[in-house]
Amino acid sequence: MPIQIYNTLKRQKEEFKPLKEGHVSMYVCGPTVYNYIHIGNARPAIVFDTVRRYFEYKGFHVDYVLNFTDVDDKIIKAAKELEEEVPAVAERFIDAYLEDVGALGVKQATHNPRVMETMEDIIQFIDALVQKGYAYAVEGDVYFKPRAFEGYGKLSHQSVDELRSGARIQVGEKKEDPLDFALWKKAKDGEIAWDSPWGEGRPGWHIECSAMVKKYLGDTIDIHAGGQDLTFPHHENEIAQSEAMTGKSFARYWMHNGYINIENEKMSKSLGNFVLTRDLINQYNPQVLRFFMLSVHYRHPINFSAELLESAENSLERIKTAYSNLEHRKNSSMDLVSNQKQEDWLNKIEELKKRFEEEMDDDFNTANAISVIFDITKEANVYLQESQTSTKIIEAFQESIRDLMNVLGVTVEEEADLLDEDIEALIAERNEARKTRDFARADEIRDMLKEKGIMLEDTAQGVRWRRG
Ligand SMILES: [Zn+2]
Questions:
Q1: Which of 261, 306, 302, 257 minimizes the C-alpha distance to 279?
Q2: Cα distance between residue 201 and residue 187, in whole Å
Q3: Has 209 been labeled as part of a binding site?
Q4: Which of 75, 120, 284, 305 could make a disulfide contact with 34, Cβ separation 3.0–4.6 Å?
Q5: In this structure, are residues 355 and 379 in contact, taking their beta carbons and an 8 Å threshold?
Q6: Is residue 111 annotated as involved in ligand binding?
Q7: Residue 414 banded pLDDT, cuts 50, 70, 90
Q8: Rounded distance, CA 257 to CA 225, Å?
Q9: How far is the CA of 395 from the centre of ligand 1 (A)?
Q10: Rounded to the nearest whole angstrom, what is the distance from the C-alpha of residue 238 to the centroid of ligand 1?
């Protein structure tokens, strides 16, 4: 079955047809790098990485571009407060972002363009919009005129007049119409700035994505994605800029992920329930956080609480335990001669894999896909009741769990795969440490093993161990 994607532009699910057979071009709006990311920023990182992984699982080649907004009012303000240069602040929080999402199992993007490095393309883009009559310069600023672009409002499904009623001209803005938005902002005294045909300044926020998409992926792309809050004005403005520029359709599928609530309340700085991804990663296994985020369909709001996170932790543990039970049983399994019963088991595994794919094909329904993985583990546990097991079937079960969990970006084997000889070696090292009265090291080894689920018991015959 082909993949169905809910397209915000059409407000319905549509069959995914790539521009180029076997390829997907995908652009995701990235963070403004002036602080550590909160879990609201972690959600799109995880969700769209999973979309990418599923395409790759299905054999597509994915070009995945995620930008960093490294010049912006918030960064300039942060740099002032920190008494640092803007590029230094941006660099530090880009590193922190990559570290955080890396811990969450997010694959590296094909490109991570930054505003400062794309300045020339951005200026050329703005200049072309001015030449074409979609934008105008006024006293060092440049504004885009949404009214000049037919189709403005098509993504957020609002008419220009509806949008006009919500727009305001802020003090100091020289725009002609409240709907107009800045493509270029004149530099204030002492602010970081670049030369342009309109004088020294820097780009407005929306234009960078249009310029980066064009530079790295072309005039028309398959998928443009981001958080739901970006639909208007950011994505609406991107469409206007890009389509005014090229005269072609900009992105064929628009995907938006839902909000995150904290203990049933909207997350906001003023409510003081702002949760940094970094703090959570220090508290929980990041894989648990990822698994939790995927336990809800990406378009639905997700409610975040310690309780729900713990429940995700237990669920993930159950899958990992099933996987490691299979691993242990592999040693006593045999290369049995193929028979009907074995064929039935292999078919059952294949059917379950197909069900997983059907759920993912249906607008990446990870919540249902996870329940299929649970069905696989249930079947595996039933199979393990048999007195004689076949290595081939054990491995088929393991492979299905491993591959499908890998689509979700969660590894099942690292902890389960601490080999018996590794455990023995650590126990020997611990014994040695105790002999030399290095109790700190001895305790450290015991704790490390405990974390991996290995319990030690000191007996008269020496140390015995078991998997807890
Ligand atoms: Zn964007």
A1: 306
A2: 4
A3: yes
A4: 75
A5: no
A6: no
A7: low
A8: 8
A9: 43
A10: 7
CA of 60 to the centre of ligand 1 (A): 24
d(CA 156, CA 45): 22
pLDDT higher than 60, residue 282: yes
Closest to 168 (Cα-Cα) out of 157, 155, 177, 160: 177
User: Are the beta carbons of 176 and 139 closer than 8 angstroms?
Assistant: no
Q: Give the distance (Å) from ligand 1 centre to CA of residue 235.
A: 6
User: What spacing in Å lies between the alpha carbon of 427 and ligand 1's midpoint?
Assistant: 53
- Write the burial class of residue 368 (CB in 10 Å: 0-12 exposed, 13-18 middle, 19+ buried): middle
Task: Please count the CA atoms within 13 angstroms of the CA of 11 that sit on its side-chain side.
Answer: 5
Residue 238 assigned to a binding site: yes
CA–CA separation, 74 and 93 (whole Å)? 13
Report the pLDDT value the prediction gives residue 271, as an integer from 0 to 100. Answer: 67
CB proximity list for 214: less than 8 A, separation 6 or greater: 121, 125, 242, 245, 246
Confidence grade of residue 169 (pLDDT, cut at 50, 70, 90): confident
Alpha carbon of 118 to ligand 1 centroid (Å): 14
Provide the pLDDT for residue 416. Answer: 46
Cα(218) to ligand 1 centroid in Å equals 15
Confidence of residue 456 (pLDDT cuts 50, 70, 90): confident
4-257: which CATH topology? Rossmann fold (3.40.50)
Beta-carbon count within 10 A of 355 CB? 17
C-alpha 71 to ligand 1 mean position (Å): 14
Tell me: is residue 29 an annotated ligand-binding position: yes
Question: What is the CB-side half-sphere exposure of residue 405 using CA atoms within 13 A?
Answer: 28
Query: Domain coordinates of the chain in residue numbers?
Result: 4-257, 277-407
Q: What is the pLDDT of residues 350-404, one digit of tens each?
A: 999 999 999 999 999 999 999 999 999 999 999 999 999 999 999 999 999 999 9
| Residue 140 DSSP SS3 | coil
Compute the mean pLDDT over every residue in the chain, rounded to the nearest whole number.
Answer: 93
Q: Which CATH superfamily is domain 277-407 in?
A: Isoleucyl-tRNA Synthetase; Domain 1 (1.10.730.10)
